Amino acid sequence: MPKLKLSIADVRERARTTARGTLPPAGIDPDATPQPGPDGQDRRAIRQRLRRTRAVRRARLAELGTLTAEMQGRGQWNQDLVDSWVRELDAADAELKGLDQALRGEVPLDDLIALHLVARCGACGRIGGGSDSFCAGCGRELARTAEPAGESPDRRSSTLVGELTTIQRPA
User: Fold this and answer.
1) What pTM does this model have?
2) Helices and strands counted in the chain (H then E)
3) Is the Cβ–Cβ distance between 98 and 160 less than 8 Å?
4) CA nearest to 121, candidates 101, 108, 137, 107
5) Structure confidence at residue 132 (pLDDT)
């Protein structure tokens, strides 16, 4: 079987053909303007952050259940601690909702950054949580912007999610 040798011109032509891409799927008008939404790099970063936030939220929810059971079993209830954990879960829910909307192209990623739901690393482009201080990808400090006047982080998250849920001590 003879070896197939490609010339430089053949390699260039294959690269150009690949770069042009393929035809759009059936049912999509090739002349229509593309739908607004995140580009490939942003979609990857959003998906990455969604996976991490979902995993952390699941773990924190399980830990909250263990914490409340332990407090009840020992008879040492700490409502402030429970409320702070619930606020963290509400903030994670708001972040998940916003990232999901950004992934579908309903909300620009820049709006989520402006609302302090997420932060973007200027060095590597990775998306971190709104309360994160350092990038999980490269370790650099995430840029902080000034807090909007009269708003606290707890208030911003509660307005996006709704009223904060509190777990009351069993009677």
Assistant:
1) 0.63
2) 5, 2
3) yes
4) 137
5) 86
